[in-house]
Amino acid sequence: MPAPASRPELVEVPPMLKPEQLGELGRVANGWNARTPLTPFEEYLLRVTSLGNTVRQVARRMEVDPKLVHSVREIVPVKLGVPNLAAAVDYGFQNGILLASPQPNSNVNRSLTLLDTIQLGYWARGLGDAAIAAKVGRQIPTITSNGNGLLEKIGAWNRPHAIRRGYRLGLFAVKAAG
Which single residue of 17, 146, 158, 170 has CA 20 to 30 Å from 132? Predict the structure, then answer.
């Protein structure tokens, strides 16, 4: 299967303010949501990861050791009580940590199969290929191959980025508060 078009070096996001630059009011004003258990650093990391950036790209942008980025990427799902980073991205959208205005693309939406939409939904819940295969009654290699095609169809580099793209394409809806 051909790889997607060349991967951008790094998707631009606003610079992260250092925690000491954020006062109590400044935290909310600068996008830190006091209702989450994540620090501003962890939220920023979730945001740039959801854009499809690799550990190395994020570390270079933040001028930190890649090992730190990798460690924090493992901590974020634990703090949010979800199984993996893709589920953390879904949690971020559902709880206002991440925001994306839907921009439905009917060409992409028409090209998705029922299995594609089911698989994307299971990714958002944190399921891996083996669990998805068991739920839909397919072989693991079939699910893996379909997942690679799904990433290509929606223009995503990895599963967390696929969840973000799903929100942007209007494939997911944010639950109403209340």
Answer: 170
